[in-house]
Design a protein that fits this description.
The chain is mostly helical. It contains 22 helices and 4 strands. A hairpin with a 6-residue loop joins β2 and β3. The radius of gyration is 24 Å and the shape is globular.
């Protein structure tokens, strides 16, 4: 590993670290600074931005944002609140399941901010230490991303895997990640069940109650959505959204029903050719990419409509139906948290993935020689790299887009990468993610905390338990299904 390679890696890591410090759009924008230094300062060849993934995120976020604008999200939150208030003693187990399934359905963890103060309120009124359900509920809201058919991370995994010769569908991904992540949530909930001192035995909390103003602040208010009237159009929007998800899953399972088109495919070991009328030499892969057929170099084949396009078409159509039939305001959707957080994710993935691809593409041979021994003997160890990058970039989709192509180029089998897929969630490690910070603020008792030493916070234990359990069990599920020929 040369000094120049280390220097350029430091530039990449510095850009990611600085972007995470500023958060939001800065993740992508500051990655652009790192990209500019590598390209203009060091003369590195720029990589390829992940346009296919970005288009899918835009379509999915637009659809989810329109559903939120119609009031459909309020109905989902109400259903979750009714379940939690019906069984308050089980809040530590039910709260993370609610936040998990909300994320699975909508594709983003930012939908749970309305539910989090309700979780805190139920725990306080039941005398349960809020840190117990709140810590794992915040973690579970992000876990659901690897189990959602429209989440950026899942779509990116499928798209990149297909481009690297590992064809896999959405149901095949979910049959591994879903049970693995559910098992991780259950064990993390068990670990959280008796966590910390009960409120009536916590001296710090009892000291707060001695102050009448603090007592009124803690017990005086009630957070609820049950008093909000849900219009029929809002429920209709939810049904349209769920219908769109079912259509996507249906076509993912029965891809033979999709329309097929003539496409150009590169022949294996085909020679490079000189374009007619020019002196430019191109490879068979390059010809296939532009749709140019040359006998003996490429061949014409009939290919079904790609799933990335199916998702975009279905999501945009569903958004339009909600606007027309559910009185959803596009202006309200654009100002809503789901759409805004989704667009932030687009910019973050755009900048981070482009920066990472530029660095890795230019040093692929060096990286392969450095990691080949470890990866050949312990291919599952790529999970540590996924986790560490996630700590830096605060985005599971960005981790997949940035690291998965490298993992395939290192020769790791697709089923192994699918098995350790849950390891792309590591940004709970440093508690600077919006859902974690918001959860700390929602807990009026002050038991959900960011510790004095930064890493001793309320999300560390449930986050580590989940990630380890989900990654290990995911690997075992993937091995089982691969040996059965299912993935």
């Amino acid at each position: 590993m040369s000094l120049l390679m280390i220097l350029q890696l430091c530039i990449v890591l510095a850009a990611l670290w600085l972007g995470s410090r500023y958060g939001s759009l800065a993740l992508g924008a500051i990655s652009g600074i790192g990209l500019a230094i590598l390209v203009f300062g060091f003369g590195m060849k720029p990589g390829t931005p992940p346009t296919d993934v970005i288009y899918i995120i835009i379509a999915a976020v637009t659809c989810a944002g329109i559903m939120q604008a119609s009031g459909g999200m309020d109905w989902l939150i109400q259903l979750a609140e009714r379940l939690l208030r019906k069984h308050p003693a089980r809040i530590t187990f039910l709260a993370p399941l609610c936040t998990f399934f909300l994320t699975v359905l909508v594709g983003t963890g930012h939908v749970v901010y309305t539910l989090m103060p309700i979780i805190c309120d139920i725990a306080i009124k039941k005398g349960i230490r809020p840190e117990r359900p709140c810590g794992i509920a915040s973690i579970a809201s992000q876990i659901g991303i690897t189990c959602s058919p429209i989440a950026a991370a899942v779509v990116a995994f499928i798209t990149i895997s297909g481009a690297n010769g590992y064809s896999i569908s959405i149901p095949q991904v979910l049959m591994v990640t879903f049970p693995a992540c559910l098992l991780g949530i259950i064990l993390a909930s068990v670990a959280s069940y008796r966590r910390g001192k009960d409120l009536d035995k916590d001296p710090e909390f009892q000291k707060k109650l001695a102050d009448p103003a603090q007592r009124e602040y803690i017990y005086g208010g009630t957070a609820t959505t049950l008093d909000k009237k849900i219009a029929p159009e809002s429920k209709r929007a939810v049904f349209i959204f769920f219908g769109a998800l079912l259509v996507i899953v249906f076509f993912a399972i029965f891809q033979d029903l999709l329309p097929a088109y003539d496409t150009v495919k590169a022949l294996k070991d085909a020679p490079s050719v000189e374009l007619i009328g020019s002196r430019v030499t191109v490879t068979a892969d390059q010809l296939a990419k532009i749709g140019q057929h040359v006998a003996g170099v490429t061949e014409k084949v009939e290919s079904p409509l790609k799933m990335n396009l199916v998702i975009q078409i279905v999501m945009i159509t569903a958004a339009a139906l909600m606007i027309i039939f559910c009185k959803a305001s596009p202006k309200k959707a654009v100002s809503g948290p789901v759409w805004q957080s989704g667009m932030v994710a687009v910019v973050a993935i755009y900048g981070i993935a482009w920066l990472a691809d530029t660095y890795f593409a230019n040093y692929l041979d060096d990286i392969q020689s450095i990691l080949s021994g470890m990866v050949e003997q312990y291919p599952w160890s790529i999970a540590f790299a996924f986790f560490l990058v996630s700590v830096l970039v605060n985005s599971q989709g960005a981790v997949v887009v940035a690291m998965l192509p490298l993992a395939y180029k290192l020769g790791i089998d697709g089923w192994i990468l699918l098995g350790v897929f849950p390891s792309v969630y590591g940004y709970f490690f440093i508690p600077n993610y919006p859902s974690d910070i918001a959860t700390v603020n929602f807990d009026r008792t002050g038991t959900t905390v960011i510790g004095k030493y930064l890493l001793n916070h309320s999300f560390m234990m449930p986050g580590m338990v989940h990630t380890v359990v989900a990654s290990v069990s995911g690997y075992l599920f993937a091995y089982l299904f691969h040996s059965m020929g299912l993935i």
